[in-house]
Amino acid sequence: MQKNTNNFCQVVKKFYFCKFKFEYDYMLERTDYIIRISSLKRGENFYKLRVNKELFENFDCQEAEDITCLVDIKAIRRERWIEFYFDFKGSMDLICSRCLSKLVMPIRKQTVLYVKFGQEYAEPDDNEIIIPENQNELDLLSYIYEELRLELPISPVHSTEEECDKEMIDILLAKETESMENKEDFDPRWAKLKELIK
Length: 198
Known about the structure:
By secondary structure, this protein is α+β, with helices and mostly antiparallel strands.
């Protein structure tokens, strides 16, 4: 049991070391997510964004250990509106809820956002917003975050148990068994039940 406990501590230390090792590798540049409407020419305009975990940390979301995603954006300027086409390609590093080891989840999605001009800001639909006619900047930070946030599973697990860390599962099962045994030793209800069985 002592060996399993030591292995468990080593895994936990390794997990937290990896988590904080790259904490300051990237800095979020909010200006990268801002589109100047006046600079859009009529027709097609193209942009590229590289998204990392700083985007999630900006919204205090800790569910992804890391994220690397390239977002290709095509903006089509019309007379009274702008069409934004987003192509997300990348991956997220999550923690498997079954074995607590790293789980790499691919990101591949395409979305469309329609930006129309009106008197005041409004969101009539999930993929449509209305901005004031005199507004010259469009901040896509929240939109891109929300689209990536929707990709996070409620309970991330490897697609098959064979992909899980077997050693870690054994350690967790041993800890769970030890916890149940301790509960039996200290819970007076179990003592009463054992007396009845005798």
